[in-house]
Amino acid sequence: MLKNFHVSFNEIGTDEAGRGCLAGPVTAAAVVLPENFTNTLLNDSKKLSEIKRFSLKPIIEEFALSFAVTHIEPLIIDDINILNASILAMQKSVLKLDTTARHIIVDGNRFKPMKNYSYDCIIKGDGKYMSIAAASILAKTYRDEVMNVLHEEFPMYNWKQNKGYPTKEHRAAIRKYGITKYHRKSFRQLPEQLKINI
């Protein structure tokens, strides 16, 4: 059972989705839940089916005291790198919130200080704290919706199914069709890119 951190004020949970993808944005969400919020289905988004994630999305949006989502596009990812882009997406989401909460709990082990906020990085936090789990679900579902739209423009990559992750099918499509404006040029799109023929 997930829990809310036992402190005297509401905390901001934040997480990202799409960090390991070859195409599409990296997306982060920030969520503030009521202190007594409980939901037996809520868990790390990676442990839930797509149907369960999308069924939880409106529940989180209804009961959250505040929530926000940010997409960082491939051009910026290529410019500042994926770690910095992921942190930027989380920070931008936090700043969009309508809340007096000033303590952030971050999934993972990396974050950057923000003026007027304190924070804790929590390894596998999306499996330990409800607000981070809620953020992971919103980040994942909002990003999936973006990839479904991009799929309509470039159906040959089947982003509706693989969401931009480096599946065999996705890489086969890159070999056949090349990359699009939505691909991250700083990422190794194909394994053989690092091989040198002598």
UniProtKB/TrEMBL annotation:
Which PROSITE patterns does this entry report, sorted A to Z? RNASE_H_2
Family of this protein? Belongs to the RNase HII family.
The record's listing under InterPro entries reads: RNase_HII, RNase_HII/HIII, RNase_HII/HIII_dom, RNaseH-like_sf, RNaseH_sf
Its keywords, alphabetically, are: Cytoplasm, Endonuclease, Hydrolase, Manganese, Metal-binding, Nuclease
The name this protein carries in UniProt is Ribonuclease HII
Q: Principal localization?
A: cytoplasm
Q: How is the cofactor bound?
A: Manganese or magnesium. Binds 1 divalent metal ion per monomer in the absence of substrate. May bind a second metal ion after substrate binding.
What organism does the UniProt record list as the source?
A: Cellulophaga algicola (strain DSM 14237 / IC166 / ACAM 630)
Q: Where in the cell is it found?
A: Cytoplasm
Q: Where is the RNase H type-2 domain?
A: 9-198
Question: Which EC numbers characterise this protein's activity in its record?
Answer: 3.1.26.4
Q: Which stretches are transmembrane?
A: none
Q: Which reaction does it catalyse?
A: Endonucleolytic cleavage to 5'-phosphomonoester
> Can you list the GO cellular component terms from the UniProt entry?
cytoplasm; ribonuclease H2 complex
In terms of CDD domains, this protein maps to: RNase_HII_bacteria_HII_like (cd07182)
What the protein does comes down to: Endonuclease that specifically degrades the RNA of RNA-DNA hybrids.
Q: Name one GO molecular function term.
A: RNA-DNA hybrid ribonuclease activity
Q: Which cofactor does it need?
A: Mg(2+); Mn(2+)
Question: What is the top-level taxon of the source organism?
Answer: Bacteria
* Pfam families linked to this entry: RNase_HII
Residues noted as binding a divalent metal cation in the record, renumbered to the chain: D15, E16, D107
Q: Name one GO biological process term.
A: mismatch repair
